[in-house]
Design brief:
The structure is a homodimer of 376-residue chains. Chain A is α+β, with helices and mostly antiparallel strands. Chain A is built from 12 helices and 19 strands. In chain A, the strands form 4 sheets. Chain A has a 7-stranded antiparallel β-sheet with strand order 17-16-15-14-13-19-18. A 6-stranded mixed β-sheet of chain A has the order 1-2-6-5-3-11. A 4-stranded antiparallel β-sheet of chain A has the order 4-10-8-9, with helices on both faces. In chain A, a hairpin with a 7-residue loop joins strand 14 and strand 15. Chains A, B: This is DUF917 domain-containing protein.
């Protein structure tokens, strides 16, 4: 992928929404933003991490806040240039990173957050690096691969739709999260954010590369399956080597927005060959723990994804409604999140669940998607 | 006053505590900080606003938060250089102000806030401008004379004792307050703050000049009255041309710390010639409204000051206790706060009191301090 045009956006949006693992907000919103920006400013040039110049600077951008709010309160792209100016000024004040070309990048490949950097790149004429910091979405800003490499999220720049901006320079990425989340809530629980400015070497080493291409390929697989009247859910499972946790109906959804997060507990009652089984989902923007009939079926940092049973598209945490027919699947996260440090950062206990992490492919050795090809 | 040495600090602290109008925190804490800094780094050079060079930059520093907390959680002066570096970088990024000499200044002449800039000036080898932005203390950061001149509080830099820093660049000083207050609460309800960076012309026009000299002279008047076995409360009244509202005993103090403020409702039962009378005080860090027997006796923006009846020193909002013998006095604020714009910013209605402001000298034409010279 050398360029993102309007034609790529629908596939990227579908794929990124799935990889968002419940989080990231309504991907159509991000798609609209990106489409408007590309229509005004032309296609976005995409570069790989290997194409970065030594002195280049990559400033990822994203949104922070509760998707329930982001869906109501559109990001104001007019805040982008000021935000980027602040971010760059803050970063250049650090010294050695100055002088190179500025690029942007997604922090997470989920939902709006994957599409917003495309809009930003178009709007500001920047190239977009095909990588992200998670290979999925996570609810807190320190929950990234760069954190595992000791890379500072600071300076973190937040901007709201009124033109207010806040720069956080904290002593740890966890302290950044705490302060930025507070600011985000005061900004109305949804804000634009720039963070994890990285040089070329850091970007090469400490990101999940090829994320946008990955999202686009996933979205394309779903679209092609539908065009061919094949099962789009199966297409997702095959593309991600995902395990099916249940196929059924959403029967209970308890949701609240608090502290800048969308929190949710949901129950899926099995249908078809899953009749009689029940899956419970615990989520904080993203789905964190899935239990089937009381037994842990998948946990963070593996990706737990709720798909519309008919279309194969993502059902985000905030769009879950009673009665929806869904298939819940899970797939492996970036291997760096499976290390001791990775699990301390994004494993079940990092979210307050007293559970040991077990890789999804060990929890479900016998239920590979390709062996369970019935659609619900 | 050309220089502040250790010898000046006690008088400045006593005077600034009185001018704090209940706010500003324990002045002895500020005094100790300033004393330690001067002991380590030598006296602080004080300049008047007329001595500023055209290209000079004045970055005032202060504390933000609830004094109840500041008294427990000492400010970490080690955070000062990083905070000032951030403040200066943020300001210089704006362009035209760069190149001059950097000075500091108090934002408010009340309590710790008057002393902290002395410590900072000593610590960093800066000159201190003899001026402040209020001529008293106020609870919110937009409540300044510079605001009345359209001067931006942004960039506002906050720093906590762990080394975390946050820069707020907001579209209005009220938005700065909202965001900075939120950050302050997350930082533990007390933080160092740098704000209202001004050039020489702005500092000359939009500040209350001579504040430190004023505080020192007031403190000296109290000290000399005590040394001469005269009435120190009367000395304050005469020095400030203040009106006595009541002399009596604190009989009811309801205090709570919330949203980064210390809030208080207190009652003073009159003694001596005020026997039978009652004064109620409503405070938010500072004293905002005093009612005597139900009638408004003084309101913000005039200074309402609670003095220890024996020593003439300030009784701060958070140190008020049942049974204390106090004299409550009031004096005129800076005339710019008495304009329509000034009252919209800091008048009773700005704090939610549905009261018209009347200047304290009109409310009490017949009770001039010098005609009421009895001590309680």
């Amino acid at each position: 992928m050398r360029e993102i045009t309007e034609e790529h956006l629908a596939d990227i949006a579908v794929g990124a929404a799935i990889l968002g693992a419940g989080g990231g907000g309504d991907p159509r919103l991000g798609e609209l933003l990106a489409r408007a920006a590309i229509r005004s400013h032309g296609p976005v040039r995409v570069i790989t991490v290997d194409e970065l110049g030594t002195d280049d600077l990559v400033v990822p951008v994203s949104m922070i806040g509760a998707p329930t709010v982001a869906n109501e309160k559109l990001p104001n792209l007019e805040a982008l240039p000021a935000m980027l100016r602040l971010a760059r000024r803050a970063v250049e004040g650090e010294g050695p990173r100055a002088g190179g070309v500025l690029h942007t990048m997604p922090i997470e490949v989920g939902g709006i957050a994957a599409l917003l950097p495309i809009a930003m790149a178009a709007e500001l004429g920047l190239a977009l690096v095909d990588a992200d910091a998670m290979g999925r979405a996570f609810p807190e800003l320190q929950m990234t691969v760069p954190t595992l490499y000791g890379i500072d999220a600071s300076p973190v720049v937040l901007a709201d739709e009124h033109g207010n901006a806040v720069v956080v320079e904290a002593v740890s990425n966890a302290a950044c999260e705490r302060l930025a989340r507070t600011v985000c809530v005061e900004m109305g629980s949804s804000a634009l954010i720039a963070l994890y400015a990285m040089d070329a070497a850091q970007t090469r080493e400490a990101t999940v590369t090829g994320s946008l291409a990955h999202a686009e390929a996933l979205g394309r697989a779903v679209r092609l399956a539908r065009e061919r009247h094949e099962d789009p859910v199966l297409a997702v499972e095959q593309h991600l080597d995902a395990r099916r946790l249940i196929s059924g109906k959403l029967v209970d959804v308890a949701r609240r927005t608090e502290g800048g997060f969308s929190r949710l507990e949901a129950r899926v009652a099995g249908l078809g060959r899953d009749a009689g089984a029940e899956l419970t989902l615990s989520s904080q923007n993203e789905h964190l723990v899935a239990r089937r009939d009381g037994e842990v079926a998948a946990t963070t940092p593996d990706l737990i994804m709720v798909l519309d049973a008919q279309t194969g598209t993502a059902v985000t945490t905030e769009s879950m409604r009673y009665g929806m027919r869904v298939v819940v699947v899970a797939s492996a996260c970036d291997p760096r999140f499976r290390t001791e440090a990775g699990l301390a950062l994004v494993g079940p206990r990092a979210f307050g669940y007293d559970l040991d992490y077990r890789p999804v492919e060990l929890l479900h050795p016998a239920t590979r998607a390709d062996e369970l090809s019935c659609s619900s």
